Amino acid sequence: MRTITYSVKLSSDAEPGTGLGTESINDLVPRDSNGHAYLPATHLKGLMRQHLSTAFASRGWDRDLLDVVLGAEGAVQSAVRISDARSKANIRTRTISRTAISEHGTASSGSLRTTEAIPAMTEFTGTLQVDAPSGEAVDLATRLGLQLISAVGGGRNRGGGACRIEIKDEKRLPGELLIELDRVIKTWKKPDTTMPKIAATLTGVKTVWFALVFRADGPICCPETPVVGVNHLRSGISIPASAVQGAVLTRLNALDSSIASACFASQHFRCWPLLPTSTDTEVQQTEVPIAVCVSLTHKISKLPVSNNVYAFKDEAIEPYKWVLVAEGSPLKGSTGVLLRHANGKIDLWRSGDMPRMITAHGVHAGERNLFSVESLAPMLFSGIMAVPEAVATTMEKMFAADPFIAVGKSRTVRGGGRLELRRVESADLAKWQPGPRQASQVFVVQSPLELPEGDLPSSASEMLTKLVQDSGLGQVSEAYATTQVLFGWNRAAQGKRVGDTQRLHASRVISPGSVFVLQTPVKDLEAVLLKGVGGARERGFGAVLPHPGVAGGKFVRPIHVRSVKSVDEAGKWAFQLHRESQGEGPTPSQIGALAAKAAQGPDLSKAKEHMDIQQKTRSARFADVWSVVKSRLDELFKRDKELVCRTLRTWQDLAISHREKETRGSK
User: Fold this and answer.
1) 386-439 pLDDT per residue, tens
2) Is it the case that residue 507 has pLDDT exceeding 50?
């Protein structure tokens, strides 16, 4: 997998609408969880498909190549993955209002529409992950499709969103790429994607454990429930174990399909869900927090008992009297993640506090259909994985050389990131056994537990008890559980299916977060974790972890303070002059007089003459006022007249605003 870096520079205002608006603005620009505007990968991919489709039709090229590059309808992957394009600086957007003109030459009633726009000269950068060698047909088609984009956002037929896209280290023009692709495509053949069925060969081997750290580059969408009667997709809080093992095995299969098949069938292979641990994807951690899906029994006081301090209890760990926990503040169930840090501190990161991103998409499929996607914002995720010893070193080298994977829905435009494998010795598994009683007795379900067909006990707790005891983990003293029905599908046609479709038969399962307490501690934690509970191992089911303990506080997400940086050079000069002159510099009227002089005549001679008068012929008081910014102004006057005039007027506005603020504060 190779990475291609590209940039998008706007030459006119762009309106990449989201379909979402407010009372005063009909269409807002896309924003991430921190409120920063960006160009969605879905939009860029759509433009690439549009331009490449036109090029392929005009040249009579094999459209199978287009399907390989960008994916065909119903395909689960493609050779190219596109990231969102983001700006290094925060963007100050503007609004554009339009109205239709009636036959009488006046504005049509109800036609006023206001949209938010990204200003011209804004520059975005992004990346493409290309699964093809350089110079091959897929690589050339990708580069051509990206460079054919000449405008982004809405109103492109009116000149909106005009842009120039440049690819790093790419010197060829679109015409040159087209000629080269025309030559290469004549010998291109569609790759064979048939999955070979190879018997497992990894038997009687040891288990190697890895701590996984996943740094998401874009939003993640892994829906937990099927969409029925609505057009809103909502991601759960985790990357399911099935998605993790699928991503790992896909990479391994590209290297050697026989090894991937053998690993998949091995009883020494199991993945756990990846759970959020931090909002900072670039944080360097020697000790990754142990993340566990919060237990069904874990409670938090509805209100703080004192200055943002909450009460936490868990009856599976220790019985308690709820009326004595927090007077006047009842306990309530908590959903989210328990994070156990290296120092033993445990935090609760509630799902409602995790940052999310909402996007809307219009799809042309017979008729226009608008649907929305609610994804997890890019975060740092952690989890664990067990693999046969025979493939451990191969996996380490593979992900060290290329850590990229993609998970969830629409993996060509979201869900990408870097996966890091950290080997964990068997003895270090004690890190997942934190306390005295709960060390190896209280377990929390992390991925669904499949319930067998046929008659089952009447309550969910009894179902869980029977399932655990049938798995040979020991006798259960207490169980707390909920059940649900899961649906799914897979292109490999594995598992019990519905008719001749690739949909899997609906499964009744014990939900993640359910808890069971064993009568006696387990002696071999490694064997218990590896075996899991129940069947359907191939779907990622059956994963459990020891309870990490009761939280001592809420996870506090770092606050990202928004600061709007001007993309205009005049604004930068004005802010510098304003910072240097506060308290001692010229007044707004004095700055205005200088700005008026700068606007006179064809050059800046009048302004320079005015400055000489202020410093040489006026009193020392006037000279002192200008001395604090003299060197900065001398440097500014070397620039063109238009920049100087705009800088001085912006500086005057800042000075007026500062004075008004001081006046209000003194009253």
Assistant:
1) 999 989 999 999 999 889 898 988 888 888 899 999 988 766 666 666 554 555
2) yes
CA-closest candidate to residue 30, choices 88, 112, 115, 111: 115
Which token pair is 575?
């802010």
In sequence order, which residues have a C-beta less than 8 Å from that of residue 210 and are 6 or more positions away? Answer: 384, 385, 386, 387, 392, 395, 421, 422, 423, 424
CA distance 141 to 138: 5
Residue 582 DSSP SS3: coil
Could you report the per-residue pLDDT of 360-391, keeping only the tens digit for each? Answer: 776 554 455 667 888 999 999 999 999 999 89
Domains along the chain? 2-187 (no CATH), 207-428 (no CATH), 433-546 (2.60.40), 569-666 (no CATH)
CB atoms within 10 A of CB 338: 28
* CB-based contacts of 603, cutoff 8 Å, min separation 6: 641
Q: Strand, helix or coil at 290? A: strand
pLDDT, residue 96, reads 87
Give the type of residue at 82. Answer: I
R_g of the chain computed on alpha carbons: 31
**How is residue 425 written in tokens?**
């010795």
Cβ within 8 Å of residue 289, ≥6 positions away: 277, 278, 339, 340, 341, 342, 382
Find out whether 222 and 236 touch, Cβ atoms under 8 Å. Answer: yes
10 Å CB burial of residue 380 (0-12, 13-18, 19+) is buried
Please write the tens of the pLDDT for every residue from 271-281. 999 999 988 87
**Predicted local distance difference test score (pLDDT) of residue 479:** 92
How big is the CA angle at 463 (ends 234 and 222), to the nearest 5 degrees? Answer: 15
Is the C-alpha dihedral spanning 210, 213, 218, 223 positive or negative?
positive
Residue range 580-606, pLDDT digits in tens: 887 677 888 888 888 888 888 888 888
- Which DSSP helix (H) or strand (E) runs through 100? none
